[in-house]
């Protein structure tokens, strides 16, 4: 019986149900927080008011002990225990006002019946307990508790048959404390089949704070971790522009290695649709098919498709593919629960790779679908072959990368062709405890066979280049004594020299080159450009200084970095490829002063980056992110970004944001966020919300007004709640915001 009850409790804990109205706290082995030891209190989360203490312990005896005010055995062998009747067995204890029965056959108990076991308690007015394995065990007016999981059940009748099926009549369940019954699940009839691992319930009603919020005429659910077919918890929402929205995912356990999730979608003022996810698990990996289709009242059908597969055949070989599609001509589903989103270009690719650690090879075939025909279509790879090898020793690092790509222009209105890339990087390492020096050579070779659609001509071109560099650093360290506390501070000056001579590249196209944002880390890079189509020319010296402070436990508390690049020659190679030795694309003698700082304190953390032009005395980049907890449970998040893009002013950014979470008392909190764009001279995000949390429920209600991806303001009210031990419900904004910080994926606390 206890075996089945344990399964029953774990099942309900993982699924759903609710507290008992007007519960008598003392009948649940409940101990309030103030009566617990300091060690027991430390194990409780901040919202729980106490815990269940099970005083029962198993006996060392293997026999059955009977006790009572009066013990009688009649002529038929039936034992009668009257007054303080108790039967103690190795794994359980049964007590009642009266007990009668035959050992190893059955017991019938009446009046204040209590059955205790390891982490489990059953109380009832009367009970029949079968001990021979052939009968039915039944408790009337029963309550059930699992001390470890905190699950509680009350039922008019609780029984199990010979096959191990548990029957609950007019019962309800909860994981809430007896002092805080926030949610409840009732069922007029519940059956738990412990052998098959699933249960069914009729006329199921979920109540929150005593108010019914959901009704299910019939429900099927899993009793353990075994996958089971059935409905998942629904999502719902409401907005002024769209009206009521609802989705109800249905999970289909097709086979041990196949399953599917089918999600109907409904938006009152928009239309309806359906999402589909199919998964297949092979001995080598997983394949997933996703489809989102929505029938819009105005635009008609909107569909997105995605097929993904990743297979690892052994420790060396793996393969996969990705197929995305938007078959409805740049129309995107209004409601979408899949991982496919709105994109300018949908990818179709497949790859095969070999990797043994130092030696890596990969073949990739890549094409795109571009729904908006006015968008410029990306180059396709038909195919790309990558191969690399790395050898590392105490004194030398050697890396070689080879890449072949057959680029194809789908529009056939500009150019395409084949490109071969060969990069070799050889560096010597000389180091000890106080410093390092690493001289190196970087060779870059490019070979092109090109076709120009405008002139219908073919051409070939090659570029060879040799760069040299020297990286060096020193490490100084000191101990700082602050009373009895010892801290460690480091100081690391860095010096790097890079010489990359000019190479004429007018005939070299641009398939994938881009110019990176100058940062402290980028200042020590050995290349000027991303991608393989531009080999940047420069002769430069980079100075850097880093300092870190560690506490007594060797945890980094703060770090400071500052550096600057000094150019000994003008740069003549630019992204557009029009290289001319007589015309510099960049004649600055030095870069911005590049600085960054990080602090990790007990009450706040800080990350800051600043790029300052000493010549023009202008700030080109200023970034600040701060997270503060000035007092317990108060959170303040601050951020500021000021960025100047010298090549495209449309990419300039200047905005600030503040978000706070402030507790009103132990359970209630308010949170808000305000983001202001100085370029637009307007706010782009305004959020205010109210949250409630206790030991078994977490609720968040917020109003949000934000600038969406279409540069249009949108607004809505969002409600989310978690019934701990049951499920998650509600709908969240897809935009990152302070509500996510409060929600914290449903975890206890913020």
Automatic annotation (TrEMBL):
Residue ranges constituting the LptD C-terminal domain according to the UniProt record: 308-668
Recorded GO CC terms: cell outer membrane; transporter complex
One biological process term in Gene Ontology: Gram-negative-bacterium-type cell outer membrane assembly
InterPro entries: LipoPS_assembly_LptD, LptD, LptD_C
Span of the signal peptide: 1-23
Pfam families reported for this sequence: LptD
Protein origin, superkingdom: Bacteria
Chief place where the protein resides: membrane
Cellular localization per UniProt: Cell outer membrane
Keyword line: Cell outer membrane, Membrane, Signal
Membrane in keyword set: yes
Family from the record: Belongs to the LptD family.
Protein purpose: Together with LptE, is involved in the assembly of lipopolysaccharide (LPS) at the surface of the outer membrane.
Quaternary structure (record): Component of the lipopolysaccharide transport and assembly complex. Interacts with LptE and LptA.
Name the UniProt record assigns to this protein: LPS-assembly protein LptD
């Amino acid at each position: 019986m206890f075996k089945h009850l344990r399964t029953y409790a774990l099942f309900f804990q993982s699924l759903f149900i609710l507290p008992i109205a007007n519960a008598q706290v003392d009948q649940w082995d409940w101990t309030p927080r103030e009566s617990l030891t300091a060690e027991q209190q430390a194990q409780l989360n901040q919202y729980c008011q106490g815990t269940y203490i099970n005083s029962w312990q198993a006996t060392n005896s293997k026999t059955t002990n009977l006790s009572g005010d009066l013990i009688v055995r009649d002529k038929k062998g039936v034992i009668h225990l009257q007054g303080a009747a108790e039967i103690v067995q190795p794994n359980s204890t049964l007590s009642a006002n009266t007990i009668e029965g035959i050992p190893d056959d059955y017991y019938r108990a009446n009046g204040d019946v209590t059955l205790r076991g390891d982490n489990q308690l059953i109380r009832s007015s009367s009970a029949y307990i079968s001990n021979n394995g052939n009968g039915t065990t039944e408790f009337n007016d029963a309550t059930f508790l699992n001390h470890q999981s905190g699950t509680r059940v009350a039922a008019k009748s609780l029984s199990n048959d010979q096959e191990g099926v548990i029957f609950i009549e007019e019962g309800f369940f909860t994981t809430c404390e007896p002092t805080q019954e926030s949610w409840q699940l009732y069922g007029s009839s519940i059956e738990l089949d412990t052998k098959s691992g699933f249960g069914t319930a009729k006329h199921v009603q979920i109540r929150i704070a005593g108010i019914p919020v959901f009704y299910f005429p019939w429900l099927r659910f899993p009793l353990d971790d075994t996958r089971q077919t059935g409905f998942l918890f629904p999502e719902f929402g409401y907005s002024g522009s769209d009206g009521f929205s609802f989705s109800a995912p249905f999970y289909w356990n097709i086979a041990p290695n196949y399953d599917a999730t089918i999600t109907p979608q409904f938006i009152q003022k928009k239309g309806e649709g359906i999402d589909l996810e199919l998964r297949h698990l092979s001995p080598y990996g997983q394949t997933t098919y996703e489809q989102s289709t929505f029938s819009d009242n105005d635009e008609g059908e909107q569909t997105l498709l995605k097929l993904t597969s990743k297979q690892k055949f052994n420790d060396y070989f793996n393969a996969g593919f990705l197929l995305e599609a938007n078959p409805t001509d740049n129309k995107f589903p209004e409601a979408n629960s899949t991982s496919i989103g709105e994109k300018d270009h949908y990818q179709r690719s497949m790859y095969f790779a070999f990797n043994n650690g130092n030696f890596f090879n990969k073949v990739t075939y890549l094409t795109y679908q571009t729904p908006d025909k006015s968008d410029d279509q990306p180059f396709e790879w038909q195919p790309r072959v990558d191969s690399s090898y790395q050898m590392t020793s105490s004194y030398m690092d050697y890396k070689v990368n080879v890449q072949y790509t057959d680029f194809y222009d789908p529009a056939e209105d500009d150019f395409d062709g084949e490109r071969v890339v060969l990069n070799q990087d050889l560096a010597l390492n000389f180091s000890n405890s106080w410093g390092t020096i690493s001289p190196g050579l970087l060779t870059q070779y490019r070979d092109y066979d090109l076709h120009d659609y405008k002139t219908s001509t073919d051409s070939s071109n090659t570029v060879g280049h040799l760069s040299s560099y020297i990286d060096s650093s020193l490490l100084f360290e000191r101990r700082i004594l602050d009373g009895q506390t010892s801290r460690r501070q480091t100081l690391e000056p860095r010096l790097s020299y890079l010489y990359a001579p000019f190479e004429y590249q007018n005939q070299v196209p641009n398939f994938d080159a881009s110019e990176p944002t100058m940062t402290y880390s980028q200042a020590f890079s050995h290349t000027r450009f991303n991608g393989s189509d531009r080999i940047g020319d420069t002769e430069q010296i980079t100075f850097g200084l880093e300092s870190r402070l560690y506490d007594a436990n060797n945890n980094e508390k703060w770090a400071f970095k500052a550096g600057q690049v000094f150019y000994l020659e003008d740069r003549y190679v630019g992204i557009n490829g029009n290289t001319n030795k007589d015309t510099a694309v960049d004649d600055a003698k030095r870069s911005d002063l590049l600085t960054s700082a990080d602090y990790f304190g007990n009450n706040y953390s800080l990350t800051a980056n600043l790029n300052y032009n000493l010549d023009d005395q202008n700030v080109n980049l200023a970034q600040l992110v701060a997270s503060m907890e000035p007092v317990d449970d108060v959170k303040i998040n601050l951020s500021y970004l000021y960025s100047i893009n010298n090549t495209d002013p449309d990419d300039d950014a200047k905005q600030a944001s503040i978000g706070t979470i402030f507790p009103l008392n132990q359970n209630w909190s308010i949170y808000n966020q305000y983001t202001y764009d100085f370029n637009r001279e307007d706010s782009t995000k305004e959020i205010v919300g109210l949250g409630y949390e206790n030991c078994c429920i977490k609720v968040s209600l917020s109003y949000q007004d934000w600038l969406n991806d279409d540069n249009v303001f949108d607004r809505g009210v969002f409600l989310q709640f978690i019934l701990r031990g049951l499920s998650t419900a509600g709908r969240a904004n897809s935009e990152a915001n302070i509500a996510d910080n409060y929600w914290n994926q449903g975890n206890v606390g913020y």
